[in-house]
Write a structure and sequence with these properties.
single chain, alpha+beta, three-stranded antiparallel beta sheet, 6 strands, globular, disordered C terminus
Length: 149
């Protein structure tokens, strides 16, 4: 089982794009390792569900320095695709609400906006994939500044 830090949190440190093996090494006992030594697809912490909210996720830059941290989450999944191993762990999926909270659309948007603002403070920019935009039609052709990945 993972061991919490002095603040009672379980830290998960991840550099997106690193191999699953590196994620396992940096976060001992946090994820289940299968017989081959790595876990394909979704990597979830081995903590009991009630302990998940004590996780603090820390994203690292290329120099292994923290660039973003988030805590008080409800669920977390890291994704690595065995079909594209060179991408490493390329997605971080985080849930901030549970169905039991009964949040309305405005409350959900406020949570989203808070997370978005935190990311902007760290210098992150929205990226719109030209092959799969979320805005379609004429709107997609005007007024959208595309940021590099």
């Amino acid at each position: 089982m993972p061991v919490p830090n002095q603040q009672g949190q379980y830290e998960i440190k991840v550099h997106l794009g690193e191999s699953a093996q590196d994620v396992y090494r940096r976060n001992p006992h946090m994820f289940k390792v299968n017989a081959s030594g790595v876990g394909p697809g979704f990597m979830r912490p081995v903590l009991p569900f009630k302990e998940i909210e004590k996780i603090k996720i820390v994203l690292m830059d290329n120099d292994q320095q923290p660039i973003f941290a988030m805590d008080h989450i409800k669920d977390i999944r890291l994704v690595n695709d065995d079909n594209i191993p060179h991408l490493g762990v390329d997605n971080l999926l985080v849930d901030t609400a549970t169905s039991g909270e009964n949040l309305n659309d405005k409350q959900l948007y406020e949570r989203y906006a808070k997370i978005r603002d935190m990311l902007k403070n760290y210098g992150w920019q929205a990226y719109i994939d030209p092959e799969d935009p979320r805005v379609f039609g004429k709107t997609s052709e005007t007024g959208i500044k595309k940021s590099p990945p």
